[in-house]
Each structure stands twice: as C-alpha cells, then as structure tokens.
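Lab notebook page, bench 4
Experiment: in silico fold of construct C2
Operator: M.H.
Input chain length: 155 residues
Purpose: comparison with the prior construct
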Amino acid sequence: MALHDLLRIDRIFLDLHPKDMKECLEMMVEMLATAGALNDRADAVNRLLDRERTMSTGMGGGVAVPHAKSAHLREMVVAMGQVPDGVDFRAIDGRPVQLVFLLLGPPDSTRQHVDLLARIAYLVKSPGVIDQLRAATSPEQVMAAVKAETARDRR
C-alpha cells in the first residue's frame, strides 16, 4: 500500500506552532481524534512519547517520524504535520524538525508499519520533495507531492 493511500487530506496539518515535541504530538493526536481517526488520545500520546524516550524519531534533515502501536486501533493511521518554525525532536543531526510524519497502528501491523517507515524514508531522501512539503500551503499540495514521488518511484 502506498503512503498516499493512508495519508488523507484531513490528516495533513499545516502551520503548526508547538512549543516542544510533546505539544507537537499532542496537537497532532488531538487533530486526528477530531477527524475521527482515533478514540483514545491519552493512550496515543503516551505510546508516542514512550517511543521517543526509547530513541528519538528525528531522522535528520528536519524530519521526524514518531510511531507507535496501540491496541485501541484497528487500522493504520498516518498523519503529516508541518512546523515552519521547527521543533526540537532530539534529531540525530541536532536540527529542528519542520516535517512530522506520525504513524499509529494496531499491534498486529508490524509489516505495514515497517513498510511505511521505509516509504517515508525514501520519500524524504528524494531530491526536492522535502522542499515541496515545507513550502506547501494546502493539504492538496502535500498530497500532490507525495503522489508524484510515489509515481516516480514506481517507474
């Protein structure tokens, strides 16, 4: 399954201004709950923060991919947040994160979870894609960039 099949317009959050990583995750989880993508906000935030305590998901280059599993979910939930001012995710390169790809899945989603992490890693390493995602002013522009890169990957 392609990334754009799970990343929906109502799960793309632009122009976020959190004061720190915890608030960033809380904001994104709250917006996902409002969009009807998950029910247990506290569980989602706690699992994401537990994962960050184990090892930062800040992969460098201004990108973080916080991810966790929860028994409260039946299907994979994917979101993207744009943080223009950057937020500290304790990334491996020490730089602030401007793009947050958040993944939450049920306990039995290991294969899909790993596949999506790999797809996101490929996407953000593709020339120009990060700049397009940072410059996007609408969820539709984000989806167009993701779909274009997916199509290029399939060639």
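Observations: The chain has a mean pLDDT of 92. The first helix runs from residue 3 to 6.
Next step: discuss at group meeting.
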